[in-house]
Request: fold
Amino acid sequence: MNEHILVIIKPDGMLKGHAGHVLSRFEETDLSLIGGRVVKVARELAETHYAHLKDKPFFDELIRFLMGELHNNQDLVLALVFSGPDAVKKGRAIAGATNPELAEPHSIRGSLGRVTTKGVFENVIHVSSDTLEGEREIKLWFTPDEVARDVFPVKMIDNRRVWSS
Ligand code: IDP
Ligand code: MG
Reply:
């Protein structure tokens, strides 16, 4: 059964030129790349993406991080959709643990991430942590026409294809 995940090269990864490396790591798996866009991260998108963390003490810093405010105003990220068997497990293994200092050394976060002196986890990539989160996030970052396979149901509104829920 195929799973679908959102992967984001975060501003630290974009600024440091790690997008190609991340793509290479995913290309070593059997996952298929079925969507990709360069996205300017507005505050509303960042806050919606991380809405489940809004009560955390690091939330404001996290939003500023995703908007690129901690990285030379690097406000463009690369958002990717990967699909395939066990995509969540494979994607999370490539990413490594949330805290770069605890992440497996050969993972993306373990090898390329860092914790700032202010305690921000600069962890290079986002990967959906389960299939429900993957669905919510893909629908948030992509329209149906921007995903090259029919992964979730769509409906027509004013002659446009939109996600049906
Ligand atoms: P995940 O990215 O591994 O799924 P989440 O718990 O969903 O981890 O947290 C989302 C993001 O919030 C992390 O990737 C990281 O950038 C940041 N974050 C999570 N926990 C902490 C923390 O304890 N301190 C600082 N930043 C954190
Ligand atoms: Mg998460």
Summary: The chain has a mean pLDDT of 97. The two ends are 21 Å apart (CA to CA). Strands lie at 2-9, 32-40, 76-85, 114-115, 121-122, 125-127, 154-157, 160-163. The domain at 2-163 is CATH 3.30.70.141 (Alpha-Beta Plaits).
